[in-house]
Each structure stands twice: as structure tokens, then as C-alpha cells.
Write a structure and sequence with these properties.
With 210 residues, the protein is of the alpha/beta class. Helices cover 41% and strands 15% of the residues. β6 and β7 form a beta hairpin. Bound molecules: ligand PQ2 and nicotinamide-adenine-dinucleotide. The site of ligand PQ2 has 18 residues, from α4.
Amino acid sequence: MGKIPFMIDLTNKNIVIVGGGKVAERRLLLLKDQCASITVISETITEEIENYIDNTSIYWYKRPFRDEDIIDTDFVIIATNDKKVNEHVINVTPKHVLLNAAHNANEGNIEFMKTVKRGLLQVGIHTGGASPTLAKKLYHDIEASFPSDYSDYVDFLYEVRQLIKLSPLENMEKHALLKEMVDCPIYDKEEQALFILQLKKKIEHPRSTK
Ligand SMILES: C[C@@]1(CC(=O)O)C2=NC(=C\c3[nH]c(c(CCC(=O)O)c3CC(=O)O)Cc3[nH]c(c(CC(=O)O)c3CCC(=O)O)/C=C3\N/C(=C\2)[C@@H](CCC(=O)O)[C@]3(C)CC(=O)O)/[C@H]1CCC(=O)O
Ligand SMILES: NC(=O)c1ccc[n+]([C@@H]2O[C@H](COP(=O)([O-])OP(=O)(O)OC[C@H]3O[C@@H](n4cnc5c(N)ncnc54)[C@H](O)[C@@H]3O)[C@@H](O)[C@H]2O)c1
């Protein structure tokens, strides 16, 4: 069975990462500000992981994995270099728990994507296991096609959309405006501010601008 992409809210979730190497580090960096807690279980951890251990939301159990480590865990990430341990963790993880198996993606129910982020915009890349290296290359290609200040334009779109949604404009006019924002993009910050000002006027006095 294949997998489909989702956006997921991990705010209240407790995550366990089994292993403390390069892959564990990559997962920790991605998830550390997104969840309630992360517990790394491994006799060794990278220097980068060690920097983030605060015993408040990020913990380190400096020992091999034990079955009781996953009681009350919402999301288990398997990232050890020991095949037997990886298989064992798969076997003891309840089926309803989110599971990422870094050594064999098919064994888990969650996979990670390489993601280009520009503020609220996220473009995920996944090759279905064909080539993580291709995913990395495409990431750099896509990165290069979005300037770093593209997030300002996306923020602008967000603000305009909220104004339009709450406005008393007719639905057709709302749709036309939302489409225009994308068909004729405004990247200049001053022009964006002016557009928002004019839009607010239009919303307050819908008839006077017709
Ligand atoms: C994009 C990136 C994001 C990330 O991981 O964060 C990513 N892998 C990266 C790198 C990478 N991965 C591997 C190599 C060695 C070369 C090679 O083997 O090709 C390198 C190169 C390197 O490290 O530079 C090997 C590998 N990867 C997976 C397996 C297991 C399997 O395929 O089943 C094995 C074999 C393990 C083994 O046998 O030893 C699985 C996954 N890797 C994925 C993503 C997901 C599928 C994405 C897709 O299909 O497009 C999935 C399912 C992730 C998951 O959910 O765990 C990240 C970019 C790194 C960066 O940007 O720094
Ligand atoms: N998904 C991916 O993107 C990807 C990329 C490369 C490798 N991998 C796979 O991910 C796994 C980890 O790769 P890595 O490069 O991070 O390895 P690594 O060698 O850097 O780290 C392995 C870690 O596992 C720990 N470990 C070993 N036995 C353990 C146990 N019993 N309990 C807890 N921790 C234990 C080690 O102490 C070490 O910290 C490997 O199986 C590799 O095949 C996945």
C-alpha cells in the first residue's frame, strides 16, 4: 500500500527517537519546535543533538532501547544502525502509533519529505524510495527558484485572503480577486501595502468603486 502526503500538527505529541546518529539528528532538528517533547534513546548522540538536550522538552536516555520507552508515546522514530534493534522496535510499537522506520520506510506509517519552506509556503519532495539523493537534488533546484523573500509575498497573500474572506463582497468578486493575486503577483512591499489599503476601502464601500 502506498502513502499520501499530509500536513500534521504535532503540538501535543510526545516523540521518541531511537538512535542518536546523523539521521536522528536530522529528525530532531526538524521536529524540535513542533511537538510537546522529544526523547532520544541511545548510548551515543551527536554533538549537535547534545546541544539541544534541555531536560524540559528534549531528553536523552543514555542507554540502549527498552520496550517501556514507547509506553504513552505518540510517534516513534527508529534510527539505529542495529538491524535487530530496528526490527524489535517495529514489533513492539502498537499499530496505532505513528512510526517512521529510517532503515526501511515500508515498515513505518510515516515518511519524511525534503521540504522547501518560504514562510507559510511548503513544497514537499518525495521519490517513493526511488532516490533520496534525487529528492535532495530537486530540493536545491526548487530552492533556487524561490527567492528567500518569497515568504513576504506569501504572507501578503495570506493577509489579503483573510480580508477578502471576511468582506461583504459577492462570491464571484471574491474569487476574481483571489485569482488576480496569483495571476498578477505583487512582490514589491510598498505596492502590497497600497493594494491592502485600496482593498480595505473597497470592502468598506463596495459600491463606490464599481
Ligand atoms: C531527502 C531526505 C530527507 C530526510 O531524510 O530528512 C531523505 N533521505 C535523505 C538522504 C539519504 N537517505 C539515504 C542516503 C544514502 C544514499 C542512498 O541510499 O540513496 C541519503 C543521502 C544522505 O544522507 O546524504 C538512504 C536511505 N533513505 C531512506 C532509506 C530507507 C528506505 O529507503 O527504505 C535509505 C537506505 C538506508 C540504508 O539502507 O542504509 C529513506 C528515506 N529517505 C528519505 C528522505 C525518505 C524518502 C524520500 C524519497 O524517497 O524521496 C525516507 C523514506 C525518509 C524516512 O521517512 O525515513 C534526505 C536528504 C538529506 C539531506 O538533505 O541532508
Ligand atoms: N532515512 C534516511 O534518510 C536514512 C539515511 C541514511 C541512513 N539511514 C538508515 O538510518 C539508520 C541510522 O543511520 P545513521 O546514519 O543515523 O547511523 P549512525 O551510525 O550515525 O547512528 C546510529 C545510532 O544508533 C544508536 N544505537 C545503536 N544501537 C542502539 C540501541 N540498541 N538503542 C538505541 N540506540 C542505538 C547508536 O548509538 C548511534 O547513535 C541506519 O539504519 C541507516 O541504514 C536512513
